[in-house]
Design goal:
122 residues, mainly beta, Lipocalin, eight-stranded antiparallel β-barrel, 8 strands, 10% helix, 64% strand, globular
Length: 122
């Protein structure tokens, strides 16, 4: 029981784990891409690795967009991961964490800047 409590405390102390809310702004116009109000739920999967469950907010609904696995660099401030679909990379997500704020970009496999992201931790 004590070991479980210590694990729970360690997970809650992780500055990345939790819910982040903000904007994901499309940079390719015109296109099927749209600006979105987003929710990102970060959970720890391994040491310095995270899963992001990404949602867009449409009216009061949370619409699941997908999951992205990212790694945290040695400084503890940069997250990076491939956006996968159907077993293939569709692009890259790069995020910088500064306290309770994250900012970053989503690029396509050809390097095209697709989205700019800003979010704050709840």
């Amino acid at each position: 029981m004590i070991a479980f409590a210590l694990l729970l405390k360690a997970a809650s102390a992780d500055p990345i784990v939790g819910t982040w809310e903000g904007s994901s702004l499309c940079q390719v116009k015109p296109s099927p891409c749209h600006d979105e109000h987003v929710l990102y739920r970060f959970s720890s999967t391994l040491q310095r690795r995270y899963r992001i469950d990404a949602y867009k907010l449409v009216a009061p609904q949370q619409v699941f967009m997908g999951a992205i696995d990212v790694g945290l660099d040695a400084t503890g401030s940069e997250l990076d991961g491939l956006i996968m679909s159907g077993g293939q990379s569709r692009g890259r997500l790069q995020l910088s964490v500064k306290g309770a704020h994250l900012s970053g970009r989503m690029t396509l496999t050809d390097g095209t800047l697709y989205r700019l992201i800003e979010a704050d931790k709840h």
